[in-house]
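In the previous chapter we treated chains in isolation. Here, by contrast, the input contains four separate entities that must be folded as one system, with a combined length of 670 residues.
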Amino acid sequence: MTGTSSGRRVTSADVAREAGVSRATVSYVLNDTPHQKIADATRRRVWEAAARLGYSPSAAARTLRTGRSDIVLGLLPNWPIEHVLGRLIQQLTSAFAEHELTFLVHSSAPPARPLREIWKAVTPAAVLALEEFPESEADAMRAVGIQVVMALHGSVRGEPRPPLVSEEPIGAVQARHLVGKHRRLGYASPDLTRLGALARSRLDGVREVCAELGLPEPDARTVPLEQSGAAEAVKTWLAADPPVTGICAFNDDVAMAVLAALRSLGLRAPQDLAVIGVDDIPGAALAQPPLTSVVRDTDAIARGLARRIVDTLDGKDAPADPIRDPLRVHVRESA
Amino acid sequence: MTGTSSGRRVTSADVAREAGVSRATVSYVLNDTPHQKIADATRRRVWEAAARLGYSPSAAARTLRTGRSDIVLGLLPNWPIEHVLGRLIQQLTSAFAEHELTFLVHSSAPPARPLREIWKAVTPAAVLALEEFPESEADAMRAVGIQVVMALHGSVRGEPRPPLVSEEPIGAVQARHLVGKHRRLGYASPDLTRLGALARSRLDGVREVCAELGLPEPDARTVPLEQSGAAEAVKTWLAADPPVTGICAFNDDVAMAVLAALRSLGLRAPQDLAVIGVDDIPGAALAQPPLTSVVRDTDAIARGLARRIVDTLDGKDAPADPIRDPLRVHVRESA
DNA sequence: TCGCGCCACTTAAACGTGTAGGTTGACTGA
DNA sequence: TCAGTCAACCTACACGTTTAAGTGGCGCGA
């Protein structure tokens, strides 16, 4: 019997009255406050009374008193939210749930409210930034006691710091996959400027591998998500000297554009041009030819980020080392 | 100069002191409470004091006092969050922002916290349910004054009611597009049971159009997202008597599975089997052949839902009629 | 001159918690 | 016997707002 439909909400005072104790005792019992001795019999009485009345504490009052809620606020970038990011959100929700934390997500697409309004409206215990935002804003949050964790770009007190979840390894894995058979690589960047930072990081990973192996710089070109535009890029790659023979694509969508362009030119992957994508979206397996793709272990990322935040909230100063998420190559036919 | 780094937060009492008025006056001015006469000179003093100190009210305290925050909580279904749902979220965020409301999203994937914990942790002004959940839970929310709006299945005080955003029209539009050249239609359902309800609704739309035109019942089959499984379904359709010649797919992913299956069988779309999808994902334009797809106007849906909720919050009892979002067919080659 | 009404405020009571600091009474050791 | 200790609880304040009810002063009509 939880909700009697009477208008008034049941407060800790009601529980206290029902159990024949003071409100403080109720609070001590239900939060089992350390260093507070309460007799077992009393504990039971309080628990039972609370259950009988269907008591659940007012989050607003608790937040007002303690200065923080049990909410972790996730700030999404202005990117398209697709399959992988969606899964990450779900796994973050689960990961935080295991620590009694509520994960809520705010997606900032203009016209949005100023960032301040958002976190002031929530009073979260921590903010997990999946988007980049000004350090000044982060400082403002920290000033009111909110823990701030940035997933991507990072800095600690002005000191730049490797991002918690880094993108370079993705490009590196792509490159390493191709580098056995291909000596000259290309990079297919997305058309969206919003994705620029992400794309640059991944490209850096490709670049590093090439440098390491004494191969020429990867040839990066923007590939729009339609056939004819993509075909231009493909022609340029093939006409280069020496010709590019393997493409690392920013993600599977871009990769599929490259594949479509190849078909339109009467060419084939991987014979004429090998292509490897990222994300392993459902369409990858169904592409012509089936697309080889790098998959990131979002569950590991989610758990890593959640642990980082929980540790910070518990006062352990978090180790600033990046989260290591295993990357896997789902090998199909395109590369 | 917003945040002096001093620890204490700026409260309305500080503003009152600075402006030489009482705390009540500050509240009246900043909220400009109707029917409260405040001299213009005083108003200005308060505003300036507030700005000078960088005052921003404590959401927790306000929520505690008034019983509701300015947060609208979106409850996501357990579906994969992909392109369209992602865009809807972003547009909902913008739509609510225009009404000074903060839209936050909770994605419930098990193991998640019980639903109660979520909305009790937020004290939202309204809940927008994109997932189905028990009516009892909705009643519990309403009991504490939270407005509840369900997007999909709907009921008002026990009376079942057409859903605010309905899925049947999608199937209907697909069918109508095919029905000119095709007399026997098939429906390609997704492999995910979680999407079952959604798929059934869309299929109903197809069914209705067929009935209306005196065509045979559409032949619905589950199409897994890989070639060989999908090929089974395709073979069954083509072997039927009379053979199925046009397929309405649940979404573009499923449609692309059908296209892949056709290719693997040496067949072609639309000659051997026409296919039409839903969502117009980036991959649709790049498929082989390019995929015809139904696009839904998510912006209209977002605005409609936001308006519904804002009206309800303003006390106007909302008209219960569904949101009309224009559907468009992006015609390419597959149908 | 008095009384009434109105403007422009102020006072003070909530909202529901957490928690520091006190207050019992029983028990212990010398 | 009595100061001292400790378990087990309670009193009372603070968190920052909103808002109903009250108050002083001024203008104005009779």
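Confidence is low (pLDDT under 50) at residues 1-5 of chain A. Residues 68-165+300-324 of chain A form a domain with the Rossmann fold fold (CATH 3.40.50.2300). Compare these points with the single-chain example from earlier in the chapter.
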